[in-house]
Task: inverse folding
């Protein structure tokens, strides 16, 4: 039996994520050169649209293009996506909220939702289905997320790099 590609992550969030728990004041449009940064913003639970050619209303436009002259533009200087993340959070004065960690689909940018275990039967490996009791799914692409060991490694790395505080 084959299983759909999955991302093993630990959503530490409310059972149901909607627009009320994802504040729109810290939303970002990223240009086509910043896909890895978009993923890191999504890991932290921020709305990070990618790829974008220009900023949308009421959103920050993140780019590496020094020629962009827009008051909502954040021009990143570094090449390392985690350093870019630090630049963006600082420029936007955005503070990651622990309850939103891994609460968005890393592919679609849509908030994930908790789903019953039975709904992922046959879509995840049997040993995962047996061991894990909380699953989340992207309502757009159907990607399944669950608490996995590398979510702890992500948090530790972000703490070590000073992006998030220790808990």
Result:
């Amino acid at each position: 039996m084959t299983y759909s590609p999955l991302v093993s992550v630990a959503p530490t969030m409310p059972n149901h994520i909607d627009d009320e728990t994802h504040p729109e004041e810290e939303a970002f449009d990223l240009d086509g050169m910043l896909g890895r940064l978009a993923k890191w913003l999504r890991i932290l639970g921020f709305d990070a649209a990618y790829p974008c050619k220009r900023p949308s209303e009421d959103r920050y436009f993140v780019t590496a293009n020094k020629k962009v002259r827009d008051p909502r533009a954040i021009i990143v200087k570094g090449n390392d996506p985690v350093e870019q993340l630090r630049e963006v959070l600082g420029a936007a004065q955005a503070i990651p909220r622990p309850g939103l960690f891994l609460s968005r689909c890393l592919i679609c940018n849509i908030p994930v939702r908790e789903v019953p275990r039975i709904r992922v039967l046959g879509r995840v490996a049997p040993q995962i289905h047996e061991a894990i009791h909380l699953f989340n799914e992207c309502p757009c692409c159907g990607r399944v997320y669950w608490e996995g060991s590398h979510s702890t490694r992500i948090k530790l790395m972000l703490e070590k790099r000073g992006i998030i505080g220790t808990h």
Observations:
- The chain is about 25% helix and 15% strand.
- The first strand starts at residue 7 and ends at 8.
